[in-house]
């Protein structure tokens, strides 16, 4: 067993290397092209090519060199892949264009450290093999969901949403999809080096995806579908929080909803009501009565002032929330994960000079985090698990909220990033969460993309972006649980860590010798 495992792990013989500038440039470019594998471009093959080029660039490099190569890759990945932040920082933050680009570059440098540390560890402690490259990639993708509250974006697995490898998602989650993508990418490099043995594990994981496609974890309940209407008000972000436009916003959403009363559920998007519930009790009472009179449940996004709670310094507790009103409806959900620089300003006192226009925006300051033990909404005898905006980027958070639910519902306001790839990348994550949990996902947004997504992750209906619209659907409640909803990320994480342990134990002696000689 040891001999066969070492055969997979042993690096090739030492070869003359190109100057370091070449792998650095290749890594930078390969990181920069990765995001084109995701929505809205969907060039999925780049999710194979990009990490394959990184893997090849690390060949027989020292750990110190690998750190630089990984940092170059990570910088390219985040600078291009998250450049949609420019719109919110420059256009809505009134920050100079050059300073906005500089801030994104700093963010890319910081986030690029994930890949830098990943590649340093890979070359310092492990042999060159897909069996160590893929699992360490997954460990670091997972780390992005919690280190410094997390920025879980640009995962390799998302490129295969609605594609062959997404059959891994309901079994082991998006990290399992990423694992197979990275394994195939690095195995391809080995095959091109005429190491034909790597065809076997590559074929195995492709066949396993085919086998998983026959497993049906969930099925529709034998009952009447839930009739749902989603209201997309298309309120411009630069007007949304203006005092003089708040009444107009409420009027727009109320008018769009007039024809929808009588359906089971009407959903308004995140902060569609741009006032605290304490500011508009008469409006809420009017809408609540309208919903009850027409036997309709109404769920809306709203900033919520919890009058029963206060911070240690006596300051009020404000939440980005969803609340249910109307007939046979109850529930209040307070957002658990807040968006840095998109929803609140970290160290706002120190950074007030950077984003001056956002300091007085209620959507950007003072929000508190909701509890992790909140219950789903009760709507017409169904349980609706909630997520607000950015929260759907967190696989385990969505999975935890989805326990004992019949539907998933998310509200968002992506007007911050209008005209960029950000909203489409965001939608792609919602699709993956639907697959992982085997539930219909109801998604209501202010400007798009408002959509109904089925348990296979397919967009069944969507409203046109950047227009006022009403989207109607009749959705069956689902029963049963996916394996991922039961076990979460633990199976793929444990599998990855075991591979790394085996790789470290059976690493060829020259890995340590090489490190000492090049230190």
Automatic annotation (TrEMBL):
Domain CN hydrolase: start-end pairs: 231-477
InterPro entries: Apolipo_AcylTrfase (IPR004563), C-N_Hydrolase (IPR003010), C-N_Hydrolase_sf (IPR036526), LNT_N (IPR045378)
PROSITE patterns given in the database record: CN_HYDROLASE
GO molecular function: N-acyltransferase activity
Pathway: Protein modification; lipoprotein biosynthesis (N-acyl transfer)
Membrane topology type: Multi-pass membrane protein
EC number(s) recorded for this UniProt protein: 2.3.1.269
Entry-linked SUPFAM superfamilies: Carbon-nitrogen hydrolase (SSF56317)
Protein name per Swiss-Prot or TrEMBL: Apolipoprotein N-acyltransferase
Organism of provenance: Acinetobacter shaoyimingii
């Amino acid at each position: 067993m040891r001999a066969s495992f070492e055969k997979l792990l042993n690096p090739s013989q030492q070869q003359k290397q190109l100057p370091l500038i070449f792998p650095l440039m290749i890594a930078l470019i390969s990181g920069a092209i990765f995001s084109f594998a995701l929505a809205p471009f969907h060039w999925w093959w780049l999710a194979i090519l990009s990490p394959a080029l990184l893997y090849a660039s690390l060949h027989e490099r020292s750990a110190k060199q690998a750190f630089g190569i990984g940092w170059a890759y990570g910088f390219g990945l985040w600078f291009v892949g998250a450049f949609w932040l420019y719109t919110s920082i420059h256009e809505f933050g009134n920050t100079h264009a050059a300073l906005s680009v500089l801030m994104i570059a700093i963010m890319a440098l910081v986030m690029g450290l994930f890949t830098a540390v990943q590649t340093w560890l890979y070359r310092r402690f492990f042999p060159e093999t897909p069996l160590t490259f893929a699992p360490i990639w997954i460990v670091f993708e997972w780390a992005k969901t919690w280190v410094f509250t997390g920025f879980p974006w640009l995962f390799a697995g998302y490129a295969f949403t609605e594609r062959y490898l997404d059959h891994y998602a309901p079994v082991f989650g998006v990290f399992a999809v990423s694992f197979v993508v990275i394994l195939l990418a690095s195995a391809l490099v080995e095959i091109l080096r005429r190491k034909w043995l790597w065809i076997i594990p590559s074929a195995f994981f492709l066949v396993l995806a085919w086998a998983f496609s026959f497993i049906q974890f969930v099925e529709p309940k034998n009952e009447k579908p839930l009739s749902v209407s989603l209201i997309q008000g298309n309120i411009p972000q630069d007007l949304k929080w203006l005092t003089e436009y708040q009444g107009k916003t409420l009027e727009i959403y109320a008018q769009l909803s007039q024809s929808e009363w009588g359906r089971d559920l009407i959903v308004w998007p995140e902060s569609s009501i741009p006032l605290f519930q304490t500011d508009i009790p008469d409006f809420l009472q009017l809408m609540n009565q309208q919903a009850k009179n027409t036997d309709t449940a109404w769920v809306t996004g709203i900033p919520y002032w919890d009058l029963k709670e206060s911070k240690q310094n006596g300051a009020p507790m404000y939440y980005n929330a969803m609340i249910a009103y109307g007939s046979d409806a109850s529930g209040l959900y307070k957002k658990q994960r807040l968006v840095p620089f998109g929803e609140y300003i970290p160290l706002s006192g120190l950074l007030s000079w950077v984003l001056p226009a956002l300091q007085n925006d209620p959507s950007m300051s003072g929000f508190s985090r909701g509890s992790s033990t909140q219950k789903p909404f009760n709507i017409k005898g169904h349980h609706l698990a909630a997520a607000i905006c950015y929260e759907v980027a967190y696989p385990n958070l969505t999975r935890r909220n989805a326990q004992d639910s019949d539907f998933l519902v998310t509200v968002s306001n992506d007007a911050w990033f209008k005209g960029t790839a950000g909203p489409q990348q965001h939608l792609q994550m919602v699709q993956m969460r639907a697959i992982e949990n085997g539930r219909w996902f109801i998604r209501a947004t202010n400007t798009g993309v408002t959509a109904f997504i089925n348990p296979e992750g397919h967009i069944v209906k969507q409203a046109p972006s950047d227009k006022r619209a009403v989207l109607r659907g009749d959705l069956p409640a689902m029963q049963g649980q996916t394996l991922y909803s039961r076990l979460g990320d633990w199976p793929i994480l444990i599998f990855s860590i075991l591979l790394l342990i085996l790789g470290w134990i059976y690493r060829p002696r020259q890995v340590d010798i090489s490190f000492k000689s090049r230190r």
